[in-house]
Design a protein that fits this description.
With 119 residues, the protein is of the alpha+beta class. Helices cover 29% and strands 29% of the residues. The protein has a single domain, classed as 2-Layer Sandwich (NE0471 N-terminal domain-like).
């Protein structure tokens, strides 16, 4: 039987532009704002079906203005570039933490292939 992951602590570090989140499985992750922003779950960026994704560029300096829980299942993140749509479910945040290195490398590879920049 698998445990449904739930956050036990959420800390926004505005100075370092990171979101620290601890879960009930004793995992703790520190997720940079840029990482959260480029992997936003919003339909605007992800599209409505595979292949419709929009590569997020120029987000190196993005920060987080605030976070707020949505019900008992997700977090809404308000970024300082005006983006505030897309709900980060607890499962998605946990997955982002677990696979952060691989996801980040995939993003950098996509940027390079598109001739795009983080700046």
């Amino acid at each position: 039987m698998t445990i449904e992951v739930q956050p036990t602590e959420i800390i926004l570090h505005q100075q370092s532009k990171t979101l620290e989140i601890a879960f009930n499985d004793n995992k703790r992750f520190t997720l940079p704002a840029e990482f959260l922003r480029v992997y936003t779950p919003s339909a605007e960026a992800r599209g409505h079906s595979p292949g419709q994704e929009t590569l997020q560029v120029g987000k190196r300096q993005v920060g987080i203005k605030g976070v707020e829980p949505v019900g008992t299942y997700a977090l809404k993140i308000d970024f300082d570039d005006g983006h505030d749509s897309g709900l980060y479910t607890w499962d998605y945040l946990h997955e982002m933490g677990r696979y952060q290195d691989a996801m980040w490398q995939e993003y950098l590879n996509k940027l390079e292939a598109a001739g795009a920049s983080r700046d």
